Amino acid sequence: MAVQAIDLQVDDVPAATRMLSAAYGWRIVADDPNFGELDAGGLRVMLSREAMVPWGALDGLILHEYVEDVEASARRAVDAGAELLSGPLTTDWGTEAAYLRGPGGLIVDLCRDV
Known about the structure:
alpha/beta, four-stranded mixed beta sheet, 19% helix, single chain, 2,3-Dihydroxybiphenyl 1,2-Dioxygenase, domain 1
């Protein structure tokens, strides 16, 4: 078994779908007012306004996106609307990383091994 998808609650699904695609290059699979889906390199990122089960704000989840150029990738994400939280910096565990926040509180670590 493998985790193949995550679902994030966002207020504006179409805007979040477009922002995540522009920021990280994720391919849009579905885009309508109540549901968006992106292919993030084999992980499906689903965006919903509502869910069948009660849920609250996202907390404690970080997606790690490995890139060749952390600085350029972070700049593209910020230009698309992501909030730069930290970096680019060199971590204690041997990566160059930039941490960004986007729709639904999603945090993405743009990183590369150094």
